[in-house]
Amino acid sequence: MPRDLAMPRTFAPLEHVPSAWRVPLLHLAFAWLGSILLFLQDWADMAHQWWDSSTYNHILLIPFVLAWLVKLRAPELALLKPQAWWPGLLPVACALFLWLLGRVSGLNFASQLGAVAFLPASLLALMGPRIVAALLFPLFYSLLLVPFGDVLVPSLQMITAELTIALTHWSGIPARIEGVFIDTPAGLFEVAEACSGVKFLIAMIALGALVAHVCFRSWWRRLAFMTAAVALPILANGVRAWGTIYIAQSQGIEFAAGFDHIFYGWVFFALVMLTLLAAGWPFFDRAPEEPFVDVPAIQHSPLLRTLDRFSFSGWQALAAIGLLALAITGWSAAAQRLEAELPAQIALPDVGGWQRMEYRPTVRWEPRAAGADHRLLGRFEDEAGHRVDVFYALYRAQDEGRDAGGFGEGALMPDTAWRWLEDGAPISAGKAEWLQAHGNHKRLAVTWYRTGDLLTGEVVRLKLANMADRITMRPNATATLILSAEQVNGQDPEEAIRAFLSSVGDPGRWMDRVGQRP
């Protein structure tokens, strides 16, 4: 019989894979494929953001960068032997628990971070600490697959506005700033969310981290380069906004806006990126042929030799990971079925010294509370002429689609005339925000959240409380209260809101009263 018929050939893709790696890679493939199927909704949501949001388009390149980083290490990895490591099950459990926290509270960032963190965590459990030591940077870099940056937008708006007004005054243009609005002789300019520079900042962070790793050996040089990668786009965005205002003074707002999108939107930031790379080039201190993995150091490390004592079977590790995943998903399913009992109907109660009146705002304003089971909106007026708009929303539970503190929820309605102006001073633990419409109409809105005995204006505290309720299987309702007042007819919005609060008393107890909580 011919030899090639008697002896089956090795599967082609594995011909160049060392024999010690073949079964561990199979284990890893099973774990990763299973996790992607298990967290398919999270991966689909992330992919949608990568593709549809210009802020996250750069993430489409990160999988290819990760593959390239692993390929650079392939010759050194072939000299190491993977070995399953049972303490690695702890990071796996942590990643799964983080996913659970995000899933049961509606916090997408947490569930997506947990889904992505499962990949390096399972690699540690299935291949051991020596392989993780060789792949340390790519594993951490993989966390950039998670879309982040929205939380930075308000701060970046304010920083850009301050830089812009300083440059505007420096260039001799008379201007006045109020929050994120800058009034100039050519017109009123807004440092909107799209002008915050967040998309370029997070893209530069991803680029800066990659360049710092690949091109530098010195940690001080890496730190200096990353500092520049963060500071330069922020400063450049301030220059961009100032340039738009400067051009508008002579050429008009329409011309300046078009020039901004064409030149500043593409060419300017490309030049900034090239400037950063050119400035760092003379200080690159890693030789092109220098390996990224110090194999002798990994092979002879006393610490890694000690950790080898906790190795065990790869199939056992894979089975343990599967059991952890099933336990966490079962826990999630049970927690997500929890819902508080709510009354069939609720209403805003009478407030002593205040009268209900027809709700007719100067500019349409109705806070968003998608997924709420009850919504109330009304206007109250007292004898002193204070007018306060009251919005109340009540939820049976918090999860995807019904998220009191989610993006686009609350006082600032997306896709309307209203714009965020600046934060106000907190009132009775509530978060105060100044909103503006049509450049001259202002409204102060103060937001409180209530769940269980917690009363807060901070979304983070609400999320933590929601997580604790779901994890401990407590079906608590969540309520949102927004007190708001317009700055019209000489009314001081803050004074009006404080007057209303002095009549209703403790906001938390009043919210319980509206929601008929015993």
UniProtKB/TrEMBL annotation:
<dbReference type="GO" id="GO:0006508">
    <property type="term" value="P:proteolysis"/>
</dbReference>
<keyword id="KW-0378">Hydrolase</keyword>
<dbReference type="InterPro" id="IPR026392">
    <property type="entry name" value="Exo/Archaeosortase_dom"/>
</dbReference>
<dbReference type="InterPro" id="IPR013426">
    <property type="entry name" value="EpsH-like"/>
</dbReference>
<dbReference type="Pfam" id="PF11984">
    <property type="entry name" value="DUF3485"/>
</dbReference>
<keyword id="KW-0812">Transmembrane</keyword>
<dbReference type="Pfam" id="PF09721">
    <property type="entry name" value="Exosortase_EpsH"/>
</dbReference>
<dbReference type="GO" id="GO:0008233">
    <property type="term" value="F:peptidase activity"/>
</dbReference>
<dbReference type="InterPro" id="IPR017540">
    <property type="entry name" value="Exosortase-1"/>
</dbReference>
<keyword id="KW-0472">Membrane</keyword>
<dbReference type="InterPro" id="IPR019127">
    <property type="entry name" value="Exosortase"/>
</dbReference>
<dbReference type="GO" id="GO:0005886">
    <property type="term" value="C:plasma membrane"/>
</dbReference>
<keyword id="KW-1133">Transmembrane helix</keyword>
<keyword id="KW-1003">Cell membrane</keyword>
<dbReference type="InterPro" id="IPR014263">
    <property type="entry name" value="Methanolan_biosynth_EpsI"/>
</dbReference>
<keyword id="KW-0645">Protease</keyword>
<protein>
    <submittedName>
        <fullName>Transmembrane exosortase</fullName>
    </submittedName>
</protein>
